[in-house]
């Protein structure tokens, strides 16, 4: 068994155990393997172990990997999530290649993506990113702006509003992690009252996965625990 396969098994087991401990069905929580900076060989090992959903932070790198795997058919098929900050001038590449965008934070970007999403593709699944720790430097919208942006995004036919995402400030204390994630969960529940089709709450990374699951995450984004430490410092965005 490859190291990556072993790591995937451990992460999956941790997700299930954590879910059960807090009375949740492990089937409600999906695993996004964050493969930024990692090689296609590493991704191939994860695919061989059954993983299908991958997260990338850099547009060019992600598109190259998508192209690399494009000719090969997997069952179920691969799905590619863009989880990094997205500049407007790169929106077309995301619209044309990815299945999901986790970092939607402005209407103008949503309108561009809606316009650029190819006719033959399914609508782009989008998550609105919330600046839940209220930090100046972090991307995402302030919670009070969510109703307005969500309503506008829901009107765009080539996008599908699936839910919310956040990257809280780094915090090692479990209770404090949990408190922040619970604020996200309550925003998510509010969103679902208005848009019942919103089914995805993207929360939790290697260092705060347990608190995210306890608060209600439906999609954890895990890099280090699957692929090992990254070789170069990735942006904290
Ligand atoms: C890098 C990254 C992750 C994965 O982080 P790990 O700590 O390696 O699990 C998750 N989400 C986002 C947005 C990232 O940029």
UniProtKB/TrEMBL annotation:
Ranges where the Alanine racemase N-terminal domain occurs: 7-230
GO molecular function annotation: pyridoxal phosphate binding
Pfam families per UniProt: Ala_racemase_N
UniProt cross-references to PROSITE patterns, sorted A to Z: UPF0001
Keyword annotations from UniProtKB, A to Z: Pyridoxal phosphate
Organism superkingdom: Bacteria
Entry-linked Gene3D superfamilies: Alanine racemase
InterPro entries hit by this protein: Ala_racemase_N (IPR001608), PLP-binding_barrel (IPR029066), PyrdxlP_homeostasis (IPR011078)
Entry cofactors: pyridoxal 5'-phosphate
Similarity annotation: Belongs to the pyridoxal phosphate-binding protein YggS/PROSC family.
Function: Pyridoxal 5'-phosphate (PLP)-binding protein, which is involved in PLP homeostasis.
Protein name, entry field: Pyridoxal phosphate homeostasis protein
Protein source organism: Sodalis ligni
Lineage: Bacteria, Pseudomonadati, Pseudomonadota, Gammaproteobacteria, Enterobacterales
């Amino acid at each position: 068994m490859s190291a990556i396969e072993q790591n995937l098994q451990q992460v999956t087991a941790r997700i299930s155990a954590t879910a059960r401990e807090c009375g949740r069905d492990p089937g409600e929580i999906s695993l996004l393997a964050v493969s930024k900076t990692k090689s296609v060989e590493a991704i191939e090992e994860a695919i061989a172990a059954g993983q299908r959903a991958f997260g990338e932070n850099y547009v060019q790198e992600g598109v190259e990997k998508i192209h690399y795997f494009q000719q090969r058919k997997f069952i179920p098929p691969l799905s590619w999530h863009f989880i990094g900050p997205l500049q407007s001038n790169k929106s077309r590449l995301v619209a044309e290649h990815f299945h999901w965008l986790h970092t939607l934070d402005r209407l103008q970007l949503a309108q561009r993506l809606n316009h650029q999403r190819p006719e033959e593709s399914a609508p782009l699944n989008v998550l609105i990113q919330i600046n839940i720790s209220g930090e100046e430097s972090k991307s995402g919208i302030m919670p009070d702006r969510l109703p307005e942006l969500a309503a506008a995004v829901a009107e765009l036919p080539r996008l599908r509003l699936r839910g919310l995402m956040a990257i809280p400030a780094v915090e090692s204390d479990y209770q404090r992690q949990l408190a922040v994630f619970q604020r996200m969960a309550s925003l998510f529940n509010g969103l679902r009252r208005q848009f019942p089709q919103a089914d995805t709450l993207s929360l939790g990374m290697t260092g705060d996965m347990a608190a995210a699951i306890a608060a209600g995450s439906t999609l954890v984004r895990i890099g280090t625990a699957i692929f090992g430490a990254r070789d170069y410092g990735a942006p904290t965005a």
